[in-house]
Structure formats: C-alpha cells, structure tokens
Amino acid sequence: MSVLEDEAVGRIAPIGAAEGCLSRLEQEVTGLFDQFRERLLRYLLSMGVGAADGEEIVQEVFLALFQHLRRGKSQRNLRAWLFQVAHNLGLKQLSRMRRAKETLGGPEEFGLELRRADPGPNPEDQLAWRQRQQRFVRVLRALPEQDRRQLSLRAEGLTYREIAEVLDISVGGVSLSLGRSLARLGRALKE
Prior knowledge:
The protein is an all-alpha fold. The chain folds into two domains: 1-110, Rna Polymerase Sigma Factor, Chain: A, CATH 1.10.1740; 117-191, Winged helix-like DNA-binding domain superfamily/Winged helix DNA-binding domain (Arc Repressor Mutant, subunit A, Orthogonal Bundle), CATH 1.10.10.10. Helices cover 71% and strands 0% of the residues. It has seven helices and no strands. It has helices spanning 18-47, 51-70, 78-104, 123-142, 145-155, 160-167, 171-190.
C-alpha cells in the first residue's frame, strides 16, 4: 500500500526489509512530489515568491519530507505537513527578498514598469475586463495577509482543518475568515 493509496489515513505504510527501505521511501516521496509539486508551487507564487525561488523551495520541502520520513517521524496528514513546510520556507524567502529590496531597491527605481498582457479580444472588452480585474485585485490586496493565505490554501484543496494546522489558527477562525473574504471578493466581482 502506498502513500497515495492510504491518503485517508495520512500515513505511509510500513516499510519492509532494511535493504528495500531507501528505494521504497524514495518511491513514496517521488509519488508525493508528482502529486503536490504544482500545488505547492502555486501556493508559493500566491504568497509572492518568484517562480525560480518557488521551485527551489518545493525541492527543499521534499528533501525535508524525505529526511522527516527517514527518521521515522509522524506521517499524520502529510498534505498539511507539506504545505506548512512550504509556507514557512516561503515566509523566510519573502523576508530575504524584502531585505534585499531594501538594500538594492525595486524595478521602479530603475525606471522599469511591470505590465501584464491583456487577453481580451477587442478594446472595449479589454477595458471592461481590466477594470473588473483591477477592482478584484484591489479588494484581494486589501484583505489581511493571513486571509489571502487562507484563500490560496483553500484554492489548493486543503480542508479548513488543514489550513488551520498550516497557519496555526483555529478551524473556526479559518471558517469566519474565508466566509468574510469570499463575500468581499464576490461583491467586487458584481460591481
């Protein structure tokens, strides 16, 4: 039985003979990597971590998982564990980025402007879409950082309980926050 087959329990099945441990463990971690790599990367990107840094963090997460499991540590709810480690490493990276930006300055300092491509087929549709998107982004950015992280984790399929574990808050707090945030975003889309 693999991790993927036993996900309801959130545990890796016991590993047999000592010589087969490493390869079996590697297979299990590789399976989890295939299953969660993109989801973890999306979460890190939603936190503001760059793509290249996000890829490195995801690799660090799975190295940490391999070491964690190799030492025989808890296998309870590995999905939440993966997101929690990614979250913590993402926060550290963002902190390093802020310090570097304070030291070096941002793209605006060099006269560079960041732009996004418009997907609309004609100018009127492009304008309407852009205004709606800007309104949505303003509302999203106005949400507290903790609320934005909860929305990102929920979008990645984590349950309220798993989000509470990752962010170290109560399940009730997650429920209230997500309900309030989704209502605000819904109003922004209707305007």
